[in-house]
Amino acid sequence: MRALLLFFAAASLIQTVLVGGASGNSQNTVSISGDTLGGIFLGSLVGGILIFAVFMLANIESPEVLGHPER
């Protein structure tokens, strides 16, 4: 489970850097830093939501969260 979370975190980070760098390079050099920072913020936000959703789904599957602890 931890490997899956790390995979999602790494994938979102790689995608953020690639998308942010591409959107920055397509315009003039002055706006590269702004676009990259915006892309990193948006990418980390979306990545954090994805990781949180995966983590919550993993917790819901465990019987303790559903209120039926195994005896």
Largest sheet: none
Q: Tell me the structural class.
A: mainly alpha
- How far apart the termini lie comes to 24 Å
Strand segment tally: 0
What Rg do the Cα atoms give? 18 Å
In total, the number of domains comes to 1
The helix tally amounts to 2
Global shape: elongated
Helix content: over 70%
Spans of at least 5 consecutive residues whose pLDDT stays below 50 are 27-31
Order of helices and strands: HH
Percent strand: under 5%
Mean pLDDT: 64
Signal peptide: 1-24
Transmembrane segments: 37-58
Keywords: Membrane, Signal, Transmembrane, Transmembrane helix
What does this structure look like?
The structure is a single chain. The two termini are 24 Å apart. The chain contains two helices and no strands. The model is unreliable at 27-31 (pLDDT under 50). The chain has one domain (2-61). It has 71 residues and is mainly alpha-helical. 76% of the residues lie in helices and 0% in strands. The protein is elongated and about 40 Å long.
Defining traits:
71 residues; mainly alpha; 2 helices; 76% helix; signal
Summarize the model shown.
The chain is mainly α. It has helices at residues 2-25, 32-61.
SSE layout:
Elements: H1 2-25, H2 32-61
Helix pairs in contact: 1-2
Transmembrane segments: 37-58
Keywords: Membrane, Signal, Transmembrane, Transmembrane helix
Signal peptide: 1-24
